[in-house]
From TrEMBL:
Ranges where the D-isomer specific 2-hydroxyacid dehydrogenase NAD-binding domain occurs: 129-302
Membership in a protein family: Belongs to the D-isomer specific 2-hydroxyacid dehydrogenase family.
Residue ranges of domain D-isomer specific 2-hydroxyacid dehydrogenase catalytic in the record: 29-334
Identification of the protein by name: Glycerate-and formate-dehydrogenase
Keywords assigned by UniProt, alphabetized: Oxidoreductase
Domain of life of the native organism: Eukaryota
Family annotation (InterPro entries): D-isomer_2-hydroxyacid_DH, D-isomer_2_OHA_DH_cat_dom, D-isomer_DH_CS, D-isomer_DH_CS1, D-isomer_DH_NAD-bd, NAD(P)-bd_dom_sf
Length: 344
């Protein structure tokens, strides 16, 4: 008699909004126990309850829009990861500064993100914020709504011929570079690793040192991940080196910029205008930024589009399938030394 093996068990935080057909197909292959999250206390409690009542689990996932209950640290994930059975934690989004990756790795589990799902939507937001900053979009709209038309408004700035300096030339930075060259901008970039000459030529971009980039760019766009090394990468000293009247765009993470230094640079006129989708202590925002009509603000909306969420949800499920079928996920962030052997 052939022994019947049970399906791998997956603990899920969230039900998909768009990849419903893919999720139902996943349910046919795996034993999925999911719940709908609300706040952090509820999520921590539900993870523990499910692990106690239905565990141990072989994998886990969390979907998008997690700000109400992140970060994902051992106080939440320990019941799932410390059993010796869970081999993967699959998560949506490109950034993972709110994830205790070392804890996941130390428990011999893979951690995956969805780095390509958010590319176009976030780059679109970056391009929009660049144009909004250059053309004073928020100031103009505020005038119209107040019945002032163009009263008190100065001429705005054309993008054509300006030097755009991109800090972080990953997938989002590359996409943003291509989009803004359509408006005649000359794109330079700084990255930890320089692109190949062939890719630079294909993208139409030029490598620069960080120092040269911040001192010579007309517009500086932050597109790098938040790490201990990039926290407050742009601060008082960096602003002082920039051109007078520089434009700042940030769709990466708020803490890449020292927000108090940005406020002072806006007050002094060192920074002419800014376009921000992320903030250092979001959703809390510095009061000056809320009242300054030279700043266009968005509520971390870059990746929040239907196409992005659909693509991202599918990518999460694909990572789970790849792990259970091959032992290796598609977009791993880490590499556990002794990965948990998956169920066959």
């Amino acid at each position: 008699m052939v022994a019947v093996t049970s399906k791998p068990k997956i603990l899920g935080i969230g039900y998909p909004k768009y990849a419903i057909a893919e999720f139902k197909a996943l349910q046919e292959k795996y034993d999925i126990h999911y719940f709908v999250p609300s706040d952090r206390k509820q999520v921590i409690g539900e993870v523990k309850r499910l692990c106690d009542e239905e565990g141990p689990f072989d994998g886990g996932y969390v979907l998008f829009q997690t700000s109400a209950y992140s970060p994902f640290k051992r106080d939440m994930l320990a019941p799932l990861l410390t059993t010796g059975t869970c081999g993967i934690w699959a998560q949506g989004g490109a950034g993972y500064d709110d994830v205790e990756v070392d804890f996941i790795t130390d428990n011999n589990s893979w951690f995956t993100n969805t780095p390509y799902a958010v590319t176009n939507a976030t780059a679109d937001m970056g391009a929009f914020l660049t144009l909004a900053a250059l053309r004073g979009v928020y100031e103009g709209e505020s005038n119209v709504r107040a019945g002032k038309w163009r009263n008190g408004m100065a001429l705005t700035t054309d993008p054509n011929g300006l030097k755009l300096g991109i800090v972080g030339m990953g997938a989002i930075g590359k996409s943003m570079a291509v989009k803004l060259q359509v408006f005649g901008m000359k794109v330079y970039y700084y990255n930890r690793k320089q692109l190949s000459p062939e890719e630079e030529k294909a993208l139409g971009v030029t490598y620069s040192t960080f120092e040269d980039l911040i001192t010579t760019s007309d517009v500086i766009s932050l597109n790098c991940p938040l790490t201990p090394e990039t926290r407050h990468l742009i601060g008082e000293k960096e602003f002082a080196k920039m051109k007078d009247g520089v434009f700042i765009v940030n769709t990466a993470r708020g803490a890449v910029i020292d927000e108090s230094a940005l406020v002072e640079a806006l007050k002094s006129g060192k920074v002419s205008r800014a376009g921000l989708d992320v903030f250092e202590e979001e959703p809390k925002i510095n009061p000056y930024l809320l009242t300054c009509n030279r700043v266009t603000l968005q509520p971390h909306l870059g990746a929040m589009s239907t196409g992005t969420i659909h693509t991202g949800e599918k990518a999460i499920f694909s990572n789970l399938e790849a792990y259970f079928e091959t032992g290796t996920p598609i977009t791993p962030v880490n590499k556990p030394l002794r990965a948990v052997k998956q169920k066959q």
